[in-house]
Amino acid sequence: MLEVAYKNINAAPLFQSFYARPALTVARELIGKCLIRAHADGTHTCWPITEVEAYTGAQDLACHGRMGRTQRNAVMFGPAGHWYLYFIYGIHWMLNIVTDQPEIPAAVLIRGAGPADGPGKLTRALGLDRELNGLAATPHAGLWIAECGVRVPRRQVRRTPRIGVDYAGDWAKKPYRWVWDARN
Predict the structure, then answer these.
(1) In angstroms, how far is CA 176 from the centroid of its own chain?
(2) pLDDT digits (tens, 9 = 90+) for 36-79
(3) CA separation for the pair 76, 101 (Å, rounded)
(4) Which whole-number Å values give the CA distances from 91 to 86, 87, 119, 121, 162, in the listed order?
């Protein structure tokens, strides 16, 4: 799962309808899709998505939407297929894609892709920050998700509890994290 740099990539972004479904469905189906970043020099980084976490809406006590709409999380309440980036611990940007229907604050956190094995490492490696917050996941934004032509066997995907959400009580134990383990 190494980085691949392309010139003039023609990988079409996933349709908005792909994201306009429950976060749990979208999360599992994102494993193996390509996260594509356009660079100023005309090249593109294309990394297969290897780890995600689903945040399912206001009832999910680990979800940013649990306390209602704020300036920080307003993107989550909008249309599916838009990027939601937020700053955490004063050092990391977290990359999420909004899912489900408008007014349902659901999203999928992209925790890993290609060689980047953590959400902070991922955003740092691809140079992602608040500039993308609220933009549609399209080539126009410079970051989108496309089919890679990779089919990830079910046996290679582990489902586990999410990371770093112990404050959410029983919601922290729900298996809302998917990890591609190609060794299986």
Answers:
(1) 13
(2) 999 999 999 999 999 999 999 999 999 999 999 999 999 999 99
(3) 10
(4) 11, 7, 12, 11, 20
